[in-house]
Design a protein that fits this description.
Blueprint lengths: L8 H22 L3 H17 L9 H19 L10 H8 L10 H9 L3 H11 L5 H8 L3 H20 L18
Helix pairs in contact: 1-2, 1-3, 2-3, 3-7, 5-8, 6-8, 7-8
Length: 183
């Protein structure tokens, strides 16, 4: 099996440098406060240090799972719904480049549709879309099998599509420039 991997301060420093910004962004997408997101990241890395022998080589999905559980514990203790931030223009930049994305869909439409979904649907869509995880990695974060995550993703995408189609269609504005035929 080979010698155990060295999990010393050097290992931790390199883990922190590589993944801290990802964990802060994860927190920013789910919390209304930048300080709270940085605090969440600090807590995640405290757990990573304490459980360093359990951290896999591909650590980011594991760290997202820790962050998700820490947030869930906070929300349970508050007994209130989380202050989840809506999708922003920056988040839609990636979506706009997708061949299957309808780039004419406005940010407000996506925000409204996403808020109609349950928390699990929103989370799987965020993990795949915002955090750019694979289905297998998202499954690790959610604590389920890859097959279950794939089914959840499929259903969440279907429900998001349905929610988008249930939104009122924006009315077209009249043309701003008129052509004069007498010129």
């Amino acid at each position: 099996m080979g010698p155990p991997k060295k999990r010393d301060e050097g290992w931790f420093t390199s883990l922190y440098r590589a993944d801290y910004a990802h964990i802060v962004r994860y927190g920013l997408r789910r919390l209304a406060d930048g300080d709270a997101a940085a605090e969440l990241a600090q807590e995640v890395f405290i757990v990573a240090w304490r459980r360093r022998t359990e951290v896999p080589d591909r650590s980011l999905p594991w760290l997202y799972g820790v962050a998700r559980r820490l947030l869930a514990n906070q929300w349970r203790s508050r007994r209130a719904a989380p202050d989840v931030l809506p999708i922003t223009d920056a988040d839609l930049t990636r979506v706009g480049h997708s061949s299957s994305a309808d780039v004419a869909v406005g940010v407000a439409d996506v925000r409204a549709a996403l808020t109609t979904l349950n928390d699990l649907d929103q989370e799987i869509l965020r993990l795949i879309g915002w955090e750019e995880l694979t289905v297998s990695e998202a499954a690790r974060v959610l604590g389920c099998t890859r097959a279950a995550a794939a089914v959840r993703l499929h259903r969440a995408r279907r429900r998001l599509t349905e929610a988008m189609s249930n939104q009122p269609t924006p009315r077209r504005r009249p043309a701003l420039v008129s052509v004069r035929e007498d010129l």
